[in-house]
Every structure is written in C-alpha cells, then in structure tokens.
Design brief:
By secondary structure, the protein is mostly helical. The chain contains 22 helices and no strands. Helix 4 crosses helix 5, helix 14 crosses helix 15 and helix 15 runs parallel beside helix 19.
Length: about 600
C-alpha cells in the first residue's frame, strides 16, 4: 500500500506487527478457516469465486476465528504496538515542533488521520464508523463517512456525461425560479444567515437543485423540503473548502452524487404526503415518538394529550398521535434543517448516515423525541397546538449538540447502538451454496444438500468443539509423554545410583577378602614354621644311641638301674607329641574356619 496515505507511526506499527508470532498464528488460523469454508461451499479453488463471493467467504472466516485465543492475543499485541508507536510519534512531535496543541489533541489528530487513510484505502470498512455513534465527527472524517455511505458512481458518471455532452441538459427549465427561491431561503431562514450573500454558495446550491429538478422531468416546482435538504451537503464541504471551490466541477459532481443518493434512500416518512406508503411510515414514526415520550417524559405526554384533545376533538392516545403529527411532521420531513443550528444538524445527520448500511436502524424518531424533551419546560407552558408549533420553531435553535449527546448517552445509547451493530459485518452477497440449481434433474451424480446458514453455523460450532477436544487430548497426551519421560529418567538415575552402590559394596567386599587372605596366609606361614620347629625338636629325642641312653656295657654291675630318669624321658616325648597333635588340630580348625570366611 502507498505509505504516503498513512501517518509514519502507523507504517512502523504495521511493520512490527507483521513480524510478530501472533500475526503468524492468526493468519494460519484464517487460512485454515478459509479452507474450511471452501470445503463447506463445495468450491475447489478460491480463485473460482467472484469478488463479492470472496469478500463473503473472507468475512465468514474472520468471524469464525474472532473469538479464539489467537485472535485475542493478536489484538492485544496490536494494541500494545499502537500505543507504543503513537505515543512515541506524538512525544517526538512535542519535542521537535513545539506545537500549541496538547498531547491529547495531537493523539486524536493522528488517530483521525490514520482512520481517514484506512477508510480511503478500504471503503468497505465503513461499518467500523458505527463505533463513532453519538460522537461529534471531525470535519474530514465526516466528509469521508458521507462520501462512503452516499456513494453512487452511476449518478456521478451520469451527471458528468450529461455535462460533457450538453451542459444545458443539466439545467432545469425552471432554473431562474430555483435560484430565486434559493436566495430567498438563505436570507430569510435565521439558521442560514452565515450562508447568505455569497454568490458561490448560491450557485452551487442552484446547480444541485436544478439538476435534481431536470431529472424529475416535471413542470411542477420543487417542494420546500428539497431546498432545505441540500443545505447540510453545502455546509459539510465548507468545513474544509472555500466557497469558490464549491462551483468547481468535481465539487458539484460530489454534491449531486450525495444529494441524489440521499433523496433516493431517505426514509419514507420524509417523502411527499400523497404517497400512501409515506403516510403509513409517518404514522409509525409518530407512534414511536409518542411511546418514547410516555416512557421518558410522561408529564409532557399527558400535557400534550390534554392540549391536543381540545384542538382536534379526539380522545386519549388518538389525540396525542394526531397532535404530534401536526407538531413534528414539518421538522421530520426536512430532518431538523431550519429548526436546529447547522452544527447540531450535522451531528444528527452523522448519526443517520453512518447507519445507512443497517436498514432497521432509524435515529430520527429518537432525535425528534429528544427535541421535545429538551423543550419540555417551554412546551408545558403552551396551552394550544399553535403555541407549541411556534415555540418549537422559535426555541429549537437554542439547543446544542452537547445536549443531544447527553440525552442519547443517558437514555437511548445502549438500545440504538445494539440495533446499529446488529448483523454487523454481514455483506449483502448471495451465498453460492444456497443458489438454486435448475440443471439438477440432469445430474446423475449425488447432489450435495443445500445447507442453511444455521446448519453451517452448527457445523462450524461442532468443528470448533471437536478441535478443542483434539487440542485438549493432544495436551493430555503430551503431558502423559512428559510424565513417562520424567519417570524413565528418574528410574535410570535410580538404577545408575543403585549400580554405583553395588559396585562400591563389591569393591569393599573384594578388599575385605584380600585382607582376610593375607591374614590367613600369614597365619599359615607362622603355623608351618612352628610345625617345622617342633619337628626339629622331636627328631633328636628319638634317635638311637643317643647320649641320653648309656650303653649297657659301660653300666656298673653292682649299680642299681635308674628307672626314674627313663620314665621322665618317655613322659617328655609323649608331652611333645600331644602338644604337636593339638597344634596340628588347632591349625586345621583355623584353616577350615578361614577357608569358610573367605568363601
């Protein structure tokens, strides 16, 4: 898109948003929703659709995801970026340019410029102007709102073609009479005095009305309301243009385009009284105004009923309705032009025009009731219908738009705003899945059923519910997998720890066995040495011819035998043998016990 049409902070914000993960997530969901819509509509390719059908499908896909978490996250991120870049831009402007306006004024100005650029780039977003309900629109934004809602390329091109082919054909045969009446109206009407005595304004007004009368192709003159209703279109352009610019061809074409479109689409109760539909619509409007007065101004309603009863010789509710019709019908037919100040009229027209794309929305009955409610004290002092009519013409011009905004906000805002945004975003495009198929009797294949909007909505809700269940199930499965992984990891760590403990115990046991083996070996060596020593002691005592046994040849015959010493020697040998045997037994027992411990 052309960056010159947007403030710098908006370009920076867009660049940052498109880089965010929230943008990627919401675009993926939008593409998935579009694919789903294509499947439901039995369309193979998105490019097979017309431009109107593409907008319808995109609108449905956007509505399908706007309540999801991804969309909410994206909106939150977008709000953060907008706040950041807008405040930075205004802060830098305050530091470098030293403007006389406050920071709040500068922020509002930048927001208006951004909204103006977006609407100029995407005029189908005009429904977003519903958010400006009961607000005083800035001049440029008002011009954009009127231009978008009263757009009529056919009327514009028709006027330009006629003007190019034959300029006289764009003028009425009663052109002089029309300009004369325009001059009288501008000078006589108190609320128009700022517009009088200006030739450019007069000729611009005359050009619109003359072409309007020429299109009607009638010899009768225009009615007074036709003259009154062209005034707001002149005034709203003068907020940004000089009077001499109104007579330029492009300005005249814009005025004619908006005026012709407004006159064709205005409510029926604003049209000529001889039309039966107009009378019925006026009766409905009067009933609505009476109902509002009874709910919010019961004293005034009772006073009017009493006053109108004397004037019309009627009773009860019928008297109130007939009196109200006489009182407010002239004001309603010209949509408050000539009764209220032009500034207040532009405010009321703003509320009416931004709701032209919502047929059930009608602000005029409420505004008419508010006028009567604001003039409550003056009207209560009047005792006749004529006195009320004069008071309405005289004192209504003293009312300000701030008074209307306060009353609307206090008593009527919620109901009117709900009606204004009902079926918001739906485009008047035929649904290709509901179009009749005249060749169906020739088709031998199974024809898909024609689904209603409720069926598709139910199917979409079922898909969303299924998607939520699948997401929840995947989340549960993911948590189960994570839990199992955690348990497996914990088990591995525990096994590793147990293995290390076992290895440590085995190492300790191995060291103990080695220690016992060394001790056993040492004891065995000690026992072996002891046995060898004992054996060495035993061998000399058992050798024959030992010195301890003297031979019989050297024994004296007359000497007695020495029996006690021989007994001692035998006793010593037996003691040694017993000691040796005990030590061997002790050694064997010790060896067996050590062997058992080592095993």
């Amino acid at each position: 898109m052309a960056t010159a049409a947007y403030p710098g902070w908006m370009i920076d914000c867009k660049t940052e948003v498109t880089k965010s993960k929230e943008w990627s997530t919401v675009t993926r969901e939008l593409h998935a929703a579009i694919e789903q819509e294509l499947t439901e509509s039995h369309v193979a390719q998105f490019t097979d659709l017309s431009e109107a059908e593409k907008r319808l499908l995109m609108n449905r896909a956007a509505n399908a995801i706007q309540h999801g978490d991804a969309y909410k996250s994206f909106n939150s991120k977008l709000s953060t970026f907008l706040d950041h870049y807008l405040n930075n831009y205004v802060g830098q402007q305050l530091l470098e340019e030293f403007p006389s306006e406050s920071k709040t004024d500068l922020i509002l100005h930048q927001v208006r410029e951004g909204a103006f650029g977006l609407l100029r780039r995407w005029p189908e977003m005009k429904c977003k102007l519903h958010l400006c309900f009961n607000q005083n629109l800035p001049d440029r934004l008002r011009q954009m709102a009127w231009k978008l809602n009263l757009r009529n390329p056919k009327a514009r091109s028709s006027y330009l073609e006629i003007l190019k082919a034959d300029p006289n054909s764009a003028m009425s045969v009663m052109d002089l009479d029309i300009i004369h009446k325009c001059e009288i109206l501008l000078q006589a009407e108190p609320t128009f005095r700022n517009l009088s005595h200006n030739a450019d304004i007069l000729h611009a007004m005359k050009a619109v009305l003359s072409y309007h009368h020429a299109r009607k192709n009638t010899q009768t003159s225009l009615v007074d309301t036709d003259y009154m209703l062209v005034i707001p279109f002149i005034v709203h352009l003068l907020t940004t243009l000089r009077p001499d610019q109104l007579v330029a061809e492009n300005c005249r074409a814009l005025l004619i385009e908006e005026y012709i479109t407004f006159m064709a689409t205005r409510p029926l109760y604003m049209k000529e009284a001889f039309n039966p539909e107009s009378n019925a619509a006026m009766q409905n409007l009067i009933s609505t105004v009476a109902d509002i007065l009874e709910r919010h101004g019961s004293k005034l309603a009772r006073h009017m009923q009493k006053t109108f009863k004397a004037a019309n010789n009627l009773e009860g509710q019928e008297a109130l309705l007939e009196g109200l019709k006489s009182l407010i019908r002239p004001m309603v037919r010209c949509m408050f032009v000539g009764y209220l100040t032009l500034d207040t009229v532009l405010y009321i027209w703003d509320q009416h025009i931004i709701g032209l794309d919502t047929p059930i929305y009608d602000i005029v009955p409420t505004m008419a009731a508010v006028v009567l409610k604001l003039l409550n004290q003056t009207l209560m002092e009047c005792s006749t219908l004529y006195g009320m009519e004069e008071a309405l013409k005289r004192d209504a011009s003293s009312l300000t738009k701030e008074q209307f905004m306060y009353e609307i906000n206090k008593h009527f805002y919620q109901d009117l705003f709900t009606i204004l945004n009902k079926d918001h975003g739906r485009l008047p495009v035929l649904d290709p899945t509901q179009m009749a198929m005249p060749w169906s009797q020739w088709n031998k294949n199974v024809i898909p059923p024609n689904l209603t909007a409720q069926d598709r909505q139910q199917a979409r809700e079922q898909r969303q519910s299924k998607k939520q269940r699948e997401l929840y199930q995947r989340h549960e499965e993911e948590e189960e997998r994570n839990r199992q992984k955690h348990e497996e990891k914990h088990q591995r760590e525990q096994d590793e720890k147990d293995k290390q403990n076992l290895e440590k115990l085995l190492q300790q046991e191995r060291q103990e066995r080695e220690k016992h083996d060394r001790q056993t070996k040492q004891e065995i060596d000690v026992l072996k040495k002891e046995i060898d020593r004992l054996k060495m002691i035993q061998q000399p005592s058992n050798r024959p011819g030992s010195l301890s046994e003297p031979s019989s040849q050297g024994r004296q015959p007359d000497s007695p035998p020495r029996t006690s010493s021989g007994d001692d020697d035998r006793g010593d040998r037996k003691g040694a043998e017993k000691t040796t045997k005990d030590m061997l037994n002790h050694f064997a027992n010790g060896a067996r016990s050590l062997g058992g411990q080592s095993q």
